[in-house]
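Narrative progress, year one. The postdoctoral researcher (J.K.) led the effort to move from monomer predictions toward full complexes, under supervision of the PI. The following entry was the first complex the group processed end to end, covering 1162 residues in total.
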Amino acid sequence: MKRTHYVSELRPEHAGQQVVLQGWVNRVRDFPEQYFVILRDRTGIAQITVDSDNPAYAVAGELRGEYVVEVTGTVRERGEAQRTDQYPTGGVEVIPTELRILNRATTPAFQVDGSPVTVSEDIRLKFRYLDLRRKDMQDVLRLRSRVQAEITRYLDLQGFVNVETPMLTRSTPEGARDFLVPSRLSQGEFYALPQSPQLFKQLLMIAGLDRYYQFARCFRDEDLRADRQPDFTQLDMEMSFVELDDVLNLNESLLRHVFREVMGEELPTPFPRISYHEAMDRYGSDKPDLRFGHAFTDVTDLFRGGAFQAFADAGAVKVMVAPDLTRKQIDELERVAKQNGAKGLAWAKRGPDGFTGGVSKFLTDAAAELTARTGVQDGQTLLFSAGDWRPAVEALGAVRNALRDLFDLASGGPRFHISWVTDFPQLDQDPDTGTWTYMHHPFTAPHPDDLALFGTPRQGEIRAQAYDLVLNGFEVGGGSIRIHQPDVQAKMFAAIGFDEAAARAKFGFFMDALESGTPPHGGIAWGFDRLIMLMSGASNIREVIAFPKNNRGVDLMALAPSTVDDAQLAEVGVQVRLPAE
Amino acid sequence: MKRTHYVSELRPEHAGQQVVLQGWVNRVRDFPEQYFVILRDRTGIAQITVDSDNPAYAVAGELRGEYVVEVTGTVRERGEAQRTDQYPTGGVEVIPTELRILNRATTPAFQVDGSPVTVSEDIRLKFRYLDLRRKDMQDVLRLRSRVQAEITRYLDLQGFVNVETPMLTRSTPEGARDFLVPSRLSQGEFYALPQSPQLFKQLLMIAGLDRYYQFARCFRDEDLRADRQPDFTQLDMEMSFVELDDVLNLNESLLRHVFREVMGEELPTPFPRISYHEAMDRYGSDKPDLRFGHAFTDVTDLFRGGAFQAFADAGAVKVMVAPDLTRKQIDELERVAKQNGAKGLAWAKRGPDGFTGGVSKFLTDAAAELTARTGVQDGQTLLFSAGDWRPAVEALGAVRNALRDLFDLASGGPRFHISWVTDFPQLDQDPDTGTWTYMHHPFTAPHPDDLALFGTPRQGEIRAQAYDLVLNGFEVGGGSIRIHQPDVQAKMFAAIGFDEAAARAKFGFFMDALESGTPPHGGIAWGFDRLIMLMSGASNIREVIAFPKNNRGVDLMALAPSTVDDAQLAEVGVQVRLPAE
């Protein structure tokens, strides 16, 4: 390699050394009889100083932003007046003996020299190769790469086998919409791109691999949001002969390793665990942001059968203490509550003379007990949610998150708060139709003590051996101990209305496999993009993916998807059929 | 974890120790008053001895092959008479205090207990979860995983950034058939699955990432063979500011590291290099198997204008020394020559009185010189190929490989012979139509000294800065220095008949990127499946893939591809159109 140093390695101790640097012209500053060329490579920037008596002076005059250059020269320590600590190489400059233009550049669509980017995200996506020149973007991609390498190292040492599962496969049971791939060799038939390697990783356990992992590309044809892409990456893991604690312990060790090695952050031992019920009941979310408090207090009993009709009949009345809120802030929070299914947001302020405003007139009888239970202080506001338990807590949970954003409540606590949510229900019932479905997926093992409840009216109480990994209020992982006994699998299929024939049609090969000597096993999948988003502090999953799609599923740079020749479609046995036809 | 040991860890020094083992019943041997249960996990096997006075005796009697069990017991050193060295734990047995059946198993479709597998490959693929229980298969998957982990470790340390490129993209320029994915959000439009990340990795260099790698899943809808699958894995790499030697050196270091760490094999420093022309001229292949000799000798001049018409006019006459061949063997080799485009295979045997048989009567004048040049010994056979240079050497190259298989010629030499093939032509001309096309892909950089030949009748002489990595006669990698100058890219497009508009339509975004400040760069892609096939000694690429397709592109286990609901197709704007319709 001709390069002797990456740009940002240069320090005063290199003074006098001959170096070869290669990179991009970040900026040229044109002074009388002198150019300051700011050279950039992936590590940072350094200043090349070209005086008018330097043979490279003419070339320096040709340079424009984003030209690619090679600089051969000598490092010089800057004088006191020229020194800067705005960047790591601010104590030195390089005096070129040769300055070569390796390639020219058109004027970039936007500046990537470190100044703030003001263009729209669409422009950034169209010129992604420019956008990725920015330090922020490169830092994220390097972080992502480092995390992958550390995970690989750790799991390899722990005896995990990295196995690549099929990309052209059959519809998997996650229940989202599949991306389809027409087959040329079997015209009229279609592969599905995998929504996850769920069945394959269980098959690997049935095959005796014992410990499996994979960075798996997964595909779901769902409508896109800030934290979703049509194709995304999972860290997928599965272990045999384990119980729930074994999976959780291994994952905690792995995460501690990664955060320590890559971020220099210590995560706790063990991670806190919170049950699904407690998470919902106290924070109104199955992925509570625990960087801050503001847990709910249950006050259902204080109003039961009382005069305040809205609270008197409610299945649950929950209250959260908030700071002093303006009327405008209360209106905003009420809007959030309504968006999340509440009819309104009851409130009252605590003052020296008791509660005022909002629903305070209904609180008189309960005032002392309310104050005692919630610990509300003068000047603070109480926010109430009442109704059936789940919608009531969910609405107040959304209000809690809005309150966090409004008052920056998460910034005072730890940078990362990670926890497990456990004891999810095995089954979920549609409130309107009464239909039962799985909460995670149909292969999640129920708690062994709850098996007798299958097929009874109380099957909603069955606990799943499932767990979610929650980081700063985002679900970054989810998994479970799986069903390994064919009879339990049959009970589970029956509970969600799959008869034997329906189950066979969908998962016949898997049911055969399950009967062929299946070890107890369990695992997890991490939403890898989302984890990196949180580790890097990015606000959007697109910021941690090199070439993402926009929210219409379009690659604005390569212009995919696109139309294709009819002949190409004929080869794979399909034709376009648009609704208008 | 309840397990205290993997099965094959047990040794006489564990005698007296209490252990918990978990695994599969490999076999049960039923003796009077005694069961020998051979327990298997992913590490190997060990014997559990259950006498009739053992409380576990009744459970042992229930065991059948492939049952999943947990054994708690004490390790005992075997007596002299019982000891065996047929497997690593043959010096010990485990006396159970508890034997638990964790799961039962149906009778397997074929034995996976170490006995030879006699069922068809189709049956193995249908019951892949059984097939993968076999030691051979698990060894391959573990090797593959170890190699991935070592590559990751090495490249991470060398500053390479692992970047995931899009799976849903636009048709790429490799020229094979794309797999298409209809879009739901843009009905009537299609994504293509990537044939390789070629453009994206170049864009990452343009983006200043400097060093990139990825284990990339790639897709080509081509007819399948023993060493091809519709989706396969590449180790994909790209580096900026490099010259050809930099890429080759880095790859050699990486391969030496991997072979040393994973296989305990030393590869040479540096790897031999052979030019495309020499490889073709001397071995008749651009991926010559150099584990053995039998290079060709050129004897064109000896017959030029002579009496033997078939040799007299030939562009090239090549001869290879073979062992003493039977008539049947010669016939077989001639069949190979004909399959590879030759009209026949001329031969003659060297005896004490000169050449006999075959074309010997035409060799009289040249006999002394032939013997001198080839070094042929009494009893050996000369095999000739004559015609235009390329078909002549290619046919004899196929004969050379057939000779290797016939006489096991490769087994005497090194286990692995790795080399670079370099100096490929930049352009390839269709002998019938005269049309020029790229030899590698249109982004390969030509040798800078040959630029002036573009657009001249001599453009076939332009050398590409391309290289293939050849292991034991298989191409396991290929790459090049890429074109970074827009004007050279334009020349290249013009040479293959792409005018500006055609190039823009296909690669417009990439041509814009190329003008935005592109560093010199180059890279390589390893055929990862094929490399693992060779490292593991497997004969077929399907043996190194956990869940492969058969040669009709069918997953016989999951039964993919399959038909899908019309409604599902309607959502993505297509319908089936079969030729019969």
